[in-house]
Amino acid sequence: MNQNNQLSQKTHSYTISTTTLWTALVTPFDPQGAIDFSSLKRNAQRQSDAGNGILLLGSTGEGLALTAKEQQAIVEFVTGLALEAPIMVAVGGYNLSEQLEWIAHCNSLPIAAYLLGTPIYAKPGAVGQTQWFSALLERSEHPCMLYNVPSRSGVNIPITTVKQLQNHPNCWALKEASGDLSTFLAFKQHCPEVQLFSGEDAMMPYLAGANVAGLVSVASNVWPEATHQYVSLALSGQHQGLFPLWQNAVDALFQVSSPIPTKVLMAQKSMITTPTLRAPLTEHELAANNGLVDVDQLINQWLDNQSQQIIGVK
């Protein structure tokens, strides 16, 4: 590793240790289905301005529906913006050699971390997952967040796997998105060396008491400042009234497969030019009377109230 990369990695390590909200950024497309880099730039800058970290090419970013060249173009474009925000890159799929090549390419870019997903479709057991993650951790030159998302991968990451990996120098964190509080607590008990992030927006008030490190969020695509404030309040123990409001927001954004509602609402708010998705996802899954505008108004009103309270305290 050259001197510039060493300096960059030290800076990123400090930044990720203070980043409590990561936005799983959507990938905007133009009407023809090509990447809309203008919208991508605006949304990446918006996240940076809000103080949020940026996750590229996750499931919310439709990463697996993109070609390798498109994935590369997105990461190189966003890292080229020289934002204040730390950037995490998703590593997902099925072919291990391709994922190792992807990590080797991204190692040379000014990123902060990787998100390492369980192989899709194969449903490997504890031995296979340990071998998979070990190989990725060894290839990485940046801190890594493991990603437990059984609703998409078909299996949980076994606790035994995380226990074996937690002392690897690149094993920094785990994104826990099973939606099961007992699973989160089991990871917390048996894998104390790994920082735990929620992958479920609405669970933050409940997980804060279990020392969750932060949130990897879908909702912050639409509400970057409000979600940042929500996470800050949850982590500081100010839970009152948070769950009902944000559960309504999450229900609206996940009423059909994500990120369909998120992109539809972002297009309505002119945050992206179109709600276009990559097949097999389509915005036409969403009913016309979807409640997104109502939820958006509630979140914006809540953020205004929070801002007024802060001004009143000052």
Instruction: Report, as a whole number of angstroms, the end-to-end distance.
Output: 47 Å
N-to-C SSE string, H for helix and E for strand = HEHEHEHEHEHHEHEHEHHHH
Coarse structural class: alpha/beta
Extended strand count: 8
Q: CATH superfamily, please?
A: Aldolase class I
Query: What low-confidence regions span 5 or more consecutive residues with pLDDT below 50?
Result: 1-11
CATH architecture: Alpha-Beta Barrel
Question: What characterizes the major β-sheet?
Answer: 8 strands, parallel, barrel
Active site: 147, 175
Main location: cytoplasm
EC number: 4.3.3.7
Site (Part of a proton relay during catalysis): 59, 121
3D structure, described in words:
Helix content is 46%, strand content 12%. It has helices at 3-17, 37-50, 68-79, 96-106, 126-139, 150-153, 159-165, 181-190, 204-207, 224-235, 242-253, 260-268, 292-313, and strands at 21-24, 53-56, 87-91, 113-117, 144-148, 171-176, 195-198, 214-217. It has one domain (3-236): TIM Barrel (Alpha-Beta Barrel). It has an eight-stranded parallel β-barrel, surrounded by seven helices. With 314 residues, it is an alpha/beta fold. The chain has 13 helices and eight strands. The chain is globular. Helix 5 (126-139) links the parallel strand 4 (113-117) and strand 5.
